[in-house]
Write a structure and sequence with these properties.
The chain is an alpha/beta fold. It has ten helices and eight strands. Strands 7-6-5-4-3-2-1-8 form an eight-stranded parallel sheet. Strand 1 (about 30-35), helix 2 (about 40-45) and strand 2 (about 50-55) form a beta-alpha-beta unit. It is globular. The mean pLDDT is about 95.
């Protein structure tokens, strides 16, 4: 299958999963994850009209997305990998959504850069639902308090939560937990689900799913 054929298949599966889950909202947005893939790999999907993409690293994204943004209008670029404070300026300049706010230092750095650049971004808090020591994200028990800090003290418009469940566990309970935390935190958006489990995530209320290898191929 070509990249475009795989993309169309994922779109169809996304719509089917939303229908089977009885979703009456607009379903889940598809964030096409392009890490490690170059402009020539991405262009067919752009030419098909898709405009929402995700990258894991600021430096890699800087190598391909400014030119693609100049060529194609309306792109919404998501940072879905960990952000270091020394990359905050570059991230705010290039990305439209940062899904990986997970500590106060990063929240303050992003806030300072958004003010400096006069560029408000959409922001998500990443939650480490499995409490994995090697993985970024705030602890579930600290989520509501951290969202409140971002909103009330820093003035950040946090609109959602994001998670990456442990690879060796059933993702369903993690998606359910993120949905519960979102309600408790007063946010509406849920970024959860990847190539292997996005249909399950949609059943649990994902508003966006992050799919890369199922579209662009193995890395």
């Amino acid at each position: 299958m070509t990249v475009l054929e795989r993309f169309e298949e994922i779109k169809a599966r996304t719509a089917k999963a939303a229908n089977e889950a009885g979703r009456t909202d607009r379903g889940a947005e598809l964030v096409a994850v392009t890490k490690t893939f170059g402009a020539d790999d991405i262009r067919p999907v752009l030419e098909a009209g898709h405009r929402i993409y995700g990258e894991n690293r600021v430096q890699e994204a800087e190598g391909k997305w400014p030119a693609l943004k100049a060529e194609f209008s309306g792109i919404e670029l998501h940072l879905i990998g960990p952000l270091q404070s020394n990359k905050a300026a570059d991230a705010v300049k290039l990305f439209d959504v940062i899904e990986t706010i997970d500590r106060e230092k990063i929240a303050r750095a992003v806030k300072a850069e958004m003010d400096k650049q006069a560029r408000p971004l959409k922001l998500y808090v990443q939650v480490n639902t499995g409490l994995e020591p090697q993985k970024a994200g705030i602890a579930p028990d600290d989520t509501a308090k951290f969202v409140a800090l971002c909103r009330d003290e820093l003035g950040l418009a946090v609109e959602g939560l994001m998670c990456i469940p442990p690879a060796d566990e059933n993702p369903g309970p993690h998606f359910a937990l993120l949905r519960k935390l979102a309600r408790e935190s007063g946010v509406e958006r849920l970024s959860m689900g990847m190539s292997g489990d996005f249909e399950t995530a949609i059943a649990f209320g994902a508003t966006s799913v992050r799919v890369g290898s199922a579209i662009f191929g193995s890395r």
